[in-house]
Amino acid sequence: MSAHLKTGQTWNTEDYAANGRFVATLASDVVALLAPQPGEHILDLGCGDGALTEQLAATGAILTGVDASPTMLAAARERSLHSAVNFAGARSFAVEQQDATALPYNNQFDAVFSNAALHWITGISGHQATLAGVHRALRSTNPQARFVAEMGGHGNVAAIRTALQATLAPFHIDAEATAASFFPSPALYRRLLESAGFTVQSIALIPRPTPLPNGMESWLNTFRNGVLDRLNPHDRTAALTDTIALLEPILRDADGNWIADYVRLRFHATLS
User: Fold this and answer.
1) Sheet holding 41-45, edge to edge
2) Are 115 and 108 in contact (CB under 8 A)?
3) Cβ 82 vs Cβ 150: under 8 Å
4) Is residue 42 within 8 Å of residue 112, measured between CB atoms?
5) Is residue 95 part of a domain?
6) What's the structural domain count of the chain?
7) Fewer Cβ close by (within 10 Å): the C or N end of the chain?
8) Which residues pair with 204 in a beta bridge?
9) CA–CA separation, 61 vs 55, rounded Å?
10) 248 domain-assigned
11) pLDDT in tens, 242-252
12) Mean predicted confidence (pLDDT) in 135-155
């Protein structure tokens, strides 16, 4: 899911559907924290292909999904049209192309929700701008107004990132700088939220070992293609082979199953 495209990452919706569906299916805990209510207006920030937005709309909440990726939005619009046929009235959602760091909304939403998107926003300043926009978007007259999100946290996919950094160094590619992901500690993100005018109700790092049924190569080609695309086809194949060889003793179990070392940062914040 892509909230802001200042990274090298690009999205292939077919690859994402095949290799990244766990992003939506493993979101039950953060959805429970959001506790969407029928009739609530909710902004889904970084909605991606709309799979989770559609689930939220089925609760009776009224969803607006935003994303920066045209390919993801096209997939989400297909869901939106389909959903409008099946869920008339309150069970609806629409999608819009927006940059997370320049949200145009003012006092419009009862809740802002984000899953697996905020870590694609680059740097402290990008997050400060995003949080300011989220704060403006929430209805100040609603005592239940809230921002609930889950993103990559400190230590997220650390083994994968370390292996990529080592493998791509001979090609003079800084994998971390190119990916430009932002995986903050709870203390740092609490400070950012509070500085933006939020009261943090809860925030925590949650280790979440994540099975990769299609293997590590599929994950790398889906979630680090922006980095790997900097290589020619021959070098890319070699880099993938070397990265997988480094990771196999750590992230592949005795039965051959790959498990990625995900760590999530989940929080619930309200207007101060």
Assistant:
1) 92-97, 62-67, 41-45, 111-115, 146-152, 258-271, 198-212
2) no
3) no
4) yes
5) yes
6) 1
7) C
8) 266
9) 10
10) no
11) 999 999 999 99
12) 97
CA distance readout (Å), 62 to 32, 89, 112: 17, 9, 12
Q: Report which secondary-structure segment, H or E, holds 204.
A: strand 198-212
Structural domain including 48 reads 13-154+181-211+261-271
For residue 96 the two structure tokens come to 């819009």
Backbone angles phi, psi at 65, to 5 degrees: -100, 135
- Separation between Cα atoms, residue 37 and residue 57, nearest integer Å: 10
Dihedral-angle region of residue 177 (phi above 0 means left; psi in -120 to 50 means alpha; beta otherwise): alpha
Query: What does the radius of gyration of the chain's CA atoms come to, in whole angstroms?
Result: 19
Q: Tell me what pLDDT residue 17 has.
A: 56
Predicted TM-score of the model (pTM)? 0.88
Confidence of residue 18 (pLDDT cuts 50, 70, 90): low
Question: Would residue 86 count as lying in a domain?
Answer: yes
Position 137 in a domain: yes
Q: Give the tens place of pLDDT for each residue, 58-102.
A: 898 999 999 998 888 898 888 876 664 334 444 478 999 999 999
Q: Residue 70, class by beta-carbon neighbours within 10 Å (0-12 exposed, 13-18 middle, 19+ buried)?
A: exposed
Half-sphere CA count of 115, side-chain side, radius 13 A: 26
Is the confidence at residue 114, as pLDDT, over 80? yes
CATH number for the domain that contains residue 267: 3.40.50.150
- Per DSSP, the three-state class of 99 is coil
